[in-house]
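Risk mitigation, structural track. In case the binding assays with zinc ion fail to produce interpretable data, a predicted complex structure has been prepared as a fallback.
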Amino acid sequence: MRLPPAPACGRRWIRWAAVLVALLPLVRLAAAPAPGWRAGLAREAVTPPAGLWMTGYAVRTRPADGKAQDLWVKALALADPAGNRGVLLTADLCAIGREHTDAVAAELQRRYGLPRSAVMTNVSHTHCSPALAGSLGPMRPIPAADAAKTADYTRVLVRRMVDVAAAALERLAPADLAWSEDEATFGINRRENAEKDVPALRAAGKLKGPSDPRVPLLAVRDRQGALLGLLVSYACHNTTLALNEWHGDYAGSAQAELERRHPGATVMFASGCGADINPNPRRELAHVEQHGRDLADAADRALAKPLRPIVGGFASAWADVPLTFSRQPSEEEIRTAREKDQPNKEMHQAWADLVSERQQKLGEAAINYAYPVQTWALGQVTWVALGGEVVVDYALRLRRELGDNAWVFGYSNDLMSYIPSERVLKEGRYEGATSMIPYGKPGPWSPGLEDKIVQQVHVLAAQVRRP
Ligand SMILES: [Zn+2]
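Fallback model:
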């Protein structure tokens, strides 16, 4: 039986249907998530009210007077094409302890199934930021009447860090990642160059000691090319200012300057290994603005270069290196710290209380410390995140040994003390020995820590790197 010919409108409908069927694969392709990275960014101000105690300098005698600049917690969440996720949290804080970064990571594990290794925390080490409960306790003992305010702020901060990381994870959307680097030179080796001599030494090209001028930059763009975020790193103490007000120091000024230059972008700062590096000049607001602009200029120069696209996947690894302090303090040392009339007497007394309490609680085990080392692979780039105030020798050595695609962060995940290299440990002085007092540690680290840490980095870097 023959079918009657379709009316003209029916034939047109059939032709359109055929065209639609032919286009279907293209439609499906366009609707499917594009293969590649996804990224999400989030931020929240965590500026405390006036009246909380600050940390970073032992000499402060009163709580913060107020705010000169906001302090921020920011997060960058990343997901690779296979769905492996990680989140980097940066904070305008001087120090944060392991118990708090672990608490953040535990909550993110509960909500999102992220392993501990996939959560990275870095603080800028600004010295115009609040003391947190349990961090750098003896540096500036907090009067008992004010301790509850610090404890409350610390609890709120941990919740905010979780919220910001969660917001970044919820916003994951297709993105392109690329990196580059440039240099900034306001960071000077503070062990080798007296602050007052720096201008003359700099002018004569006679600055001494190692430093790390590199400013690595990660750029996050959406698929239309709009800049969503930047991560900038530099290895230099965030100690331009010694205000009695909240301020992010040069890292805070650089973030604000870059966010002004790139409206809509979230700009994050991660500390490199700048424990023995100081900005110069310092102490005036004009200086912090100058350093902020210098770092922003370096980031913009890096951004103007042909960026290297990050291609590949995400992987993360974590290990605690068993380190030891070289000795327990003697009863005589503890008694002297309690009784001697000396500068920063309260700090020495607080150190004595802390180390003797730890000794009583843990006995011989009081000299042990679980030191966190973390690595991330972002495609061909390797991030190494080390705990503590890490001296520049580690970054220079690891970059030499791991190659130019390695970024090395200090001030990550736990701020337990300075982390001297073997050279700095032997030389002693503040970064090698005496800073253990404000950090409430029993004594200097045992020799051998540099090789233990570096060997662990190599093991973890091999785990995350792909052939
Ligand atoms: Zn420091």
